[in-house]
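Bit of a strange request maybe. I'm writing a small parser for structure token strings and I need a real example to test against, not something I typed by hand. Could someone generate the tokens for this chain?
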Amino acid sequence: MSSIRPLHDRVVIQRLEEERTSPGGIVIPETAAEKPMKGKVIAVGNGKMLDNGERRPVEVSAGDQVLFGKYSGTEVKIDGEDYLVMREDDIMAVFQ
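Reply from user aminoacidic:
Good idea to test on real output. This should exercise your parser:
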């Protein structure tokens, strides 16, 4: 990926592919599968600027695997790859 630095409290996320087989062994076609809500953080901004002029750092870092809302973020294509750009507030959890 080309170098990209999101601004403020935004993060760039690459979706992680979900398994496309149901528990019963049926293969789910890509057109019928839901978009995954799990992704890998690719880049993070410097943090949110607070009213008092201080900057609150972003709690996630590049490489973290995160869980986000189904309709969170804005889809972008960079160097032929699909990514999501979203605010840190849209991230619900970090996988340990």
